[in-house]
Amino acid sequence: MWIKTIRLENFRNYKSQTVELNPGLNIFVGNNAQGKTNLLEAMYVLALSKSYRTTRDVELIHHNASTAKVYGRIQRLADVDLDLNVSRTSPKKLLVNNKTVTANSFVGNLHAVLFTPDSLQLVKGSPGDRRRFLDIQICQIDPVYRNTLLKYERVVRQRNRLLKEAFENRRILSQLPVWNRQLIELGTKIMVRRYRVLSRLNELSNRMHRNISNSVEDLNVVYCPFFTKGDPYHNYDDFSPSFLENLFFEELNSIQREEMLRGHTMVGPHRDDVCFLINDVDTKTFGSQGQQRTAVLSYMLAEMELMREETGEYPVVMLDDVMSELDHTRRRFLLSILNSKVQTIITTTNMGSFDGTTLKSASIFQIQSGEIH
After folding, report:
1. pLDDT (tens digit per residue) in 83-127
2. Backbone φ and ψ of 263, nearest 5°
3. What integer is the mean pLDDT of 247-274?
4. What is the residue range of 72's domain?
């Protein structure tokens, strides 16, 4: 899988731009604030139907325009044309091969792994960041999971509204068991899928990490569902749906009074976390910056391999100005893995991070003021 062509019209600081890419390494060079990140954002919205930088689609539109368009031709077994149209006055429009589709049908036609300087904060960032990172990964390869997650989020919002209203009107608590059943049913499906994905990501991440560290360190990526309270050393043997449903039910009953006082749902997979252990030590708290970055790098490469296992194709890998954040050893390992397997899109402010051998096989583009040459 790779992006053959991308065309932007009134997207961010691009008025009209078409770029033909090669299936290997593509390097976009330019100073800051010229449009490098905007270009990767456009590729990202073709994969996920939405931006990773804003929740307001209108921010994608050039300030002098009323609409923005992103088009991409994706090479798979057969070419796939993807279009995303954003307007200031009407809903977003998504098309696959010129046919209007829902977001659920749009997502999955292009798989992408995005690595930014913020990604390097994954280990020491918030649980919400790690959940979002994991959910993006699964949603691209599993439309059923994406649909379940959206339903679960709606149930949480509805249940929160009921809890707030129940503080003034206790009679509406009679509706709570209905929402609890939905919360448990959907939440259990999410946790089972997360557990299975992270079990495989753990195996793949460990393999990558041992290669980078010359087998000196072992990385374990541990799923910490809400009932572990974020404890990566919490042991549980049973992860069957029936076990999770019973535990979920017990947790909801034990905390109902506190939920009513606070007015929001306090247990469920929206409270899950993912923990990183190196040699059985919590990397978030005790790991060095180098260890944290190696853990994130290993995890990202594991995502890439998992996507290939699940879909039969490697994703497009996008690296937004991260080469300067990695030392020589990590840069060399990363490029050696990517160059032989996937289409890679790299943005950078200078070429000092690349050796001559790497550059020989790369397509190099210059970006200045929203124009690509």
Report:
1. 999 999 999 999 999 999 999 999 999 999 999 888 888 999 999
2. 75, 25
3. 92
4. 1-111+316-373
CATH number at residue 237: 1.20.1050.90
Across the chain, mean pLDDT equals: 92
Closest CA to 213 of 297, 338, 284: 297
Domain ends where: 289, 312, 335?
A: 312
**Total domains, the chain:** 2
What is the pTM assigned to this prediction? 0.91
Q: Determine the Cα–Cα distance for residues 111 and 46; give it in Å rounded to an integer.
A: 9
**Using CA atoms, how far apart are residues 163 and 140, in angstroms rounded to an integer?**
33
Predicted confidence band of residue 355 (pLDDT cuts 50, 70, 90): confident
Same domain, yes or no: 283 and 337: no
- CATH code for position 14: 3.40.50.300
Domain termination residue (choose one: 276, 294, 312): 312
Query: Long-range contacts: 89-96, Cβ < 8 Å, 24+?
Result: 92/49, 92/57, 94/49
Cα dihedral 117, 294, 202, 1 sign = positive
**Residue 25 · residue 362 · CB < 8 Å:** yes
